[in-house]
Design goal:
Length: about 280
């Protein structure tokens, strides 16, 4: 009996151990749920919601957007979380179209074309070009939005221009190496003027840009200045002016990289092989 009782006692201990194991499992389950919630919070986003059989972009089921929304409208929706007025979307699209390319003398285009001959993938060639878009090449639109906001805020273009020119001979968004009058300026500013007349945008940044151009003539407004007017009038913050330029110029970079990849060159350099470099 004593042995049996001991056996029973041991069994009871085993049951107690099992209960402890169950308790431990419950703790592990709670830990897993807590970790899952923490991970969900870590990657929380208002941009998209992805679940099995569900894709929502800014709260819109993707199937409701496909075939019903243009790309410029999609860009606006993704960046700002709301559908744009069609006239605002048309203005955004005009700015995106205007900036797609400026030839292989642009460093970003040249670099992408050279990269495409080096055995890298098309995505790497595009990334090579995009990664060259910085403060000097590609950043003037963002800087010009800042300039225009300064003029609008202070209400004195003369003072702003004088202050800027005292520290830098360049005004972002004005002047061009090739064009005495950038052929993209007038169409874009004309569309902005129409949007102002229709009450789509307020017009303060357009007036600021024209006043700055008047003060520094004959230096003309360039594409960075014209697109800066569009983006500022549409309410995009200055850093997004650069982001939108990168988005636009990526189209040209892709086109050049694709063309170059089909021409059969290998290890294309900055000058033709027949021209010997000068060693200094």
């Amino acid at each position: 009996m004593s042995d049996q009782g001991g056996a029973v006692s041991d069994q009871g201990g085993a049951v107690s151990d099992q209960g402890g194991a169950v308790s431990d499992q419950g703790g592990a389950g709670n830990d897993q749920r807590g970790a899952g919630n923490e991970a969900a919070d870590w990657w929380a986003t208002a941009v998209s919601r992805i679940e099995p059989d569900v894709i929502e972009l800014r709260g819109h089921p993707v199937q409701d957007l496909i075939g019903r929304i243009g790309f410029a409208e999609m860009v606006w929706l993704m960046l700002r979380g709301e559908r744009p007025d069609p006239r605002g979307a048309a203005l955004l699209e005009a700015a995106l179209v205007s900036s797609v390319d400026h030839g292989p003398h642009a460093p970003s285009i040249a670099a992408a074309r050279m990269a495409a001959t080096c055995g890298v993938g098309l995505n790497n060639a595009v990334a090579t070009g995009v990664n060259l878009l910085g403060d000097v090449h590609g950043g003037a639109g963002e800087q010009c939005v800042g300039l225009l906001e300064e003029v609008v805020r202070e209400g004195d273009a003369t003072a702003v221009v004088a202050r800027r020119r005292a520290r830098d001979k360049y005004l972002p968004g004005f002047g061009h190496r090739f064009h005495t009058r950038d052929p993209r300026r007038d169409p874009l500013l004309g569309l902005v003027a129409e949007a102002v007349a229709d009450g789509v945008v307020p017009g303060a940044h357009l007036r600021a840009a024209i006043e700055v151009e008047r003060l520094i003539e004959p230096v003309p407004m360039n594409i960075d200045g014209a697109t800066a007017v569009v983006y500022a009038e549409l309410g995009f913050p200055a850093p997004l002016a650069r982001g939108l330029f990168v988005l636009s110029r990526s189209v040209g970079i892709l086109a050049h990289a694709w063309e170059e990849s089909g021409q059969g060159r290998r290890n294309k350099g900055p000058i033709p092989p027949s021209i010997l470099p000068t060693w200094l």
